[in-house]
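Lab notes, practical 5.
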Amino acid sequence: MLLVRSALDSAMNRARFVLLGGCLLAFLAASLNTAFMVRLGTSVSHLTGDVSRFAIDLSSAGSEPRTAVSFLAAALTGFVAGAMLSGALIHHPRLELSRPYGRSIAGIGVLLLGANQLLPRSEVGAVALAATACGYQNALATHFRGVILRTTHVTGLLTDLGVMLGMRLRGHSVDSFKIGAPACLVLAFFLGALAGAFASTHFGTDVFLVIGLAYLAGGLGWTVLKRTMF
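Output from the prediction step:
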């Protein structure tokens, strides 16, 4: 009985730990995306709105869509490239903490620091690098306890949350984690968006440097911590 209880406690602690990490990634991705929206009017962590906005620009008489086209092309190319890189290096259908997530997160930080350096000289290039980082992070989404952990957008999370709540209302037995995890990730994304908007308004482009350093520190920190856990 003590062994079973110990195993259950260990599993719960692991779930909380994984969810905390996911929330931190969602917070940072939302901050980055909002900062780009404030600075350039384009998103880098999801592209649905950009495609729709580009269509509106094309349909508007007298509009000048060249900048929108450049940003959209850079974001699309970068996002797909990042997802491809993630798929080639680390992607796995199930979460395994022993995999090199720390190096991946640190690599995202390096990409964002590069985007920060490139921004004054090439906004399109900065968008491409940031979108690559987000595509890489988005492709890290894996199954954990029946939940797909998404950290760069909320559409899928809200869908999962709605489905689980609907099943609970119909009387089905639903693991509380399947409801709590997407709810926490959505909240983290929202808080990150607020933080990104506030920081962009008050600190300008320095926000990109801070976010890049946060990813880098987080990735290196997890790499060191993992060596003490495994």
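Observations recorded by the TA: Residues 2-229 form a domain with the Growth Hormone; Chain: A; fold (CATH 1.20.1250). The longest strand covers residues 143-144.
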